[in-house]
Design goal:
Radius of gyration: 32 Å
CATH topology of one domain: Aspartate Aminotransferase, domain 2
Strand content: 5-15%
Shape: elongated
CATH architecture of one domain: 3-Layer(aba) Sandwich
Number of helices: 8
Structural class: alpha/beta
Strand order of the largest sheet: 3-4-5-6
Distance between the termini: 79 Å
Largest sheet: 4 strands, mixed
Bound molecules: pyridoxal-5'-phosphate
Number of strands: 6
Order of helices and strands: HHHEEHEHEEEHHH
CATH class of one domain: Alpha Beta
Mean pLDDT: 83
Length: 303
């Protein structure tokens, strides 16, 4: 069904004096037209340019309206073709309803369920683009995962120069600082540039991730906004768990646990390395044997 001479846009009233946002008015008009059956399933809507011109609106606003109604399932657009009314989007007329069938709901009053039809799609896309422009680098200088290497001094200084040049910050993720088996603990990057580095520590590795306790060192001007964001994101860490951790540390039990875990993990580390060396040696030995049998050279190296 094509957009007919009955010009459905005439049914769309945009009242600039009402104080209601124009986009909301337009969305409401189209949504209502579809629900009430004035716009039929499959019917072609005018192009965004055309409708914008007719109603004296910007084309972007009409496009946003179409995108929103598409997200809500009222409209469909296929690449290269017009926007049309989607199947199943109209409320069946009362007379057409099979007797005894539940009436179709036009509003949802269930508690705790947001009105996803009102989702601020365009603002969300904007915010995502803004967030992607944030000038922050996440680094694990003490123990890169998965290779395990530590960042040496020169690359550390280069990283700090890089962030200074861009007026950026480093988020130093020091997630397992307590456990080192093959080297002395390295200093934190944060110590080299407290004004440029946000340092994050956690007890996820030393105690348990489920406790959700960590700590942060940050430039003073970021302390308040970050605390606010933390509050918004998880309503803060339970006080009882924080106090329990403090008691564990003060009593020396945390230290004792760390020493025991270090020894245990170091033993596992050594076992794993020995097994790996063994398997590498036997692979080399067999490769060398093959080489000897075929007349080539071979060496077992340090195995
Ligand atoms: C690279 C890295 N950073 C941080 C963490 C700790 O995250 P959280 O403290 O949120 O448990 C982990 C835990 O596995 C990790 O692998």
């Amino acid at each position: 069904m094509e957009w007919s001479g009955s010009s459905p846009e005439l049914l769309l009233v945009v009242d600039r004096t009402s104080g209601r946002p124009l986009r909301a008015q337009l969305e409401h008009g189209v949504r209502d037209g579809i629900r009430m059956g004035r716009l039929q399933v499959g019917e072609r809507l005018p192009s965004s340019r055309e409708l914008a011109r007719t109603l004296g609106l910007s084309r972007g606003l009409v496009q946003e309206c179409y995108a929103q109604l598409q997200a809500e399932g009222y409209l469909v657009t296929h690449p290269g073709s017009a926007t049309r009314v989607a199947a199943g989007s109209a409320i069946p007329p009362a007379s057409a309803r099979p007797s005894g069938a539940a009436p179709r709901l036009v509003a949802d009053f269930r508690w705790g369920v947001p009105d996803l039809g009102a989702f601020l799609l365009q603002d969300w896309l904007w915010a995502t683009r803004e967030a992607a422009r944030a000038r922050a680098v996440v680094a694990t200088p003490a123990h890169q995962w998965p290779t395990g290497v530590a960042l040496a001094l020169q690359p550390r200084l280069a990283l700090l120069d890089w962030v200074r040049d861009r007026d950026a910050i480093v988020i130093e993720d020091d997630y397992d600082a307590e456990f080192r088996y093959d080297r002395e603990p390295v200093g934190a990057l944060q110590g080299l540039a407290p004004d440029r580095v946000i340092f994050l520590g956690t007890i996820s590795k030393s105690l348990a991730p489920a406790l959700r306790i960590g700590w942060m060192l940050c430039p003073p001007d970021l302390a308040e906004p970050l605390t606010e964001q933390k509050h918004l994101s998880d309503r803060r860490t339970p006080t009882l768990d924080q106090l329990a951790l403090a008691r564990l540390i003060e009593s020396g039990r945390f230290d004792r646990h760390l020493r025991r875990m270090r020894a245990g993990y170091a033993a596992r580390h050594a076992t794993l390395l020995a097994a790996h060396r063994g398997s590498t040696c036997s692979q080399r030995a067999s490769a060398s044997g093959t080489a000897r049998r075929t007349g080539g050279g071979g060496a077992l190296g340090s195995c």
